[in-house]
Specification:
single chain, about 150 residues, mainly alpha, Arc Repressor Mutant, subunit A, two-stranded antiparallel ribbon, disordered C terminus, DNA-binding transcription factor activity
Length: about 150
């Protein structure tokens, strides 16, 4: 299964906020767009959604911004993916209608695969993703650092 960009970016945003727990000032959309080279409109939608889900506190206005209000150790990846993904359906047998549908085994196999995929994600938390926060912060400080040099 492949995550949508929306979910991918949502996880990246939460990672970015979580590796900077000592920061007192609010984060801004522009900072996220600069770090990850994303559209401000797209980031704003994701931040708003993460706020509605209770992961972020968002403050509107000139001096507004957002911050993480949920501990990284309380953000379950399986739950987060379920909340951010629009649909977890792997195949649509109805459009166009597939004549194999009444006797096909593929849909049940894919459902089992999705169940296993989500079970693995359920066993991890955002804190597991950022357990190398020193290397993650280092990668932000120097954009010339390659992935290979961080291993």
């Amino acid at each position: 299964m492949q995550l949508t960009r929306y979910t991918d970016y949502g996880i990246r945003i939460l990672m970015y906020l979580a590796i900077q727990p000592e920061r007192t000032e609010l984060f801004r959309i522009g900072e996220i767009t600069d770090v990850f080279d994303l559209s401000a409109n797209h980031v704003a939608k994701i931040v708003n959604h993460l706020g509605k889900l209770g992961y972020l506190k968002t403050i509107r206005g000139k001096h507004g911004g957002f911050k993480l209000v949920t501990s990284a150790s309380d953000i379950n990846l399986g739950t987060l993916v379920r909340q951010l993904e629009n649909s977890l359906v792997q195949v649509n047998c109805a459009e166009p209608y597939c004549r194999f549908t009444p006797v096909c085994n593929l849909k049940s196999m894919l459902a089992k695969a999705l169940s296993a995929y989500l079970a693995v994600l359920d066993s991890y938390y955002l804190s597991d993703v950022i357990d190398n926060s020193d290397k993650l912060l280092e990668s932000l400080a120097d954009p010339t650092i390659s992935i290979l040099s961080l291993n």
